[in-house]
Inverse folding.
């Protein structure tokens, strides 16, 4: 399971021109389920994500988590995080979970996040337009193989 986390002052996701999810100060989490992922991983990743200390404390140091600052999350599925670019110039995505497994793990992850912090989401499998204001900028790659 992979997640690309961006600390944001705001983020939005649109499908067919309609706003379907947004967050104010917090995180945009781009999520990808992988072939070998198991049902215990969404909980593990959500806990790690929500407790990741990437927000500034009173001294300006990255020392607080999303939970600590009362931030929000916007979770968006993105199978392209599974891209393998080791051969040629066309990315391969065979390491991504099959569609139904990916959908199930995505739903589990966003539900786990919602149990921890206010969370909105994109639409699995949809062609989405995502906009954000990256704060910092801070961008962190998480993989459940850590």
């Amino acid at each position: 399971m992979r997640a690309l986390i961006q600390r944001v002052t705001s983020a939005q996701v649109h499908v067919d021109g309609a706003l379907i999810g947004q967050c104010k100060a917090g995180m945009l989490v781009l999520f990808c389920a992988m072939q070998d992922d198991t049902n215990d991983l969404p909980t593990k990743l959500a806990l790690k994500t929500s407790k990741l200390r990437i927000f500034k404390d009173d001294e300006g140091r990255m020392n607080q988590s999303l939970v600590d600052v009362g931030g929000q999350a916007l979770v968006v599925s993105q199978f392209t995080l599974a891209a393998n670019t080791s051969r040629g110039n066309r990315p391969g995505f065979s390491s991504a979970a099959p569609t139904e497994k990916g959908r199930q793990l995505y739903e589990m992850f966003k539900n786990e996040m919602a149990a921890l912090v206010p969370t909105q989401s994109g639409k699995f499998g949809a062609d989405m337009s995502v906009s954000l204001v990256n704060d910092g900028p801070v961008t962190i790659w998480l993989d459940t193989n850590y």
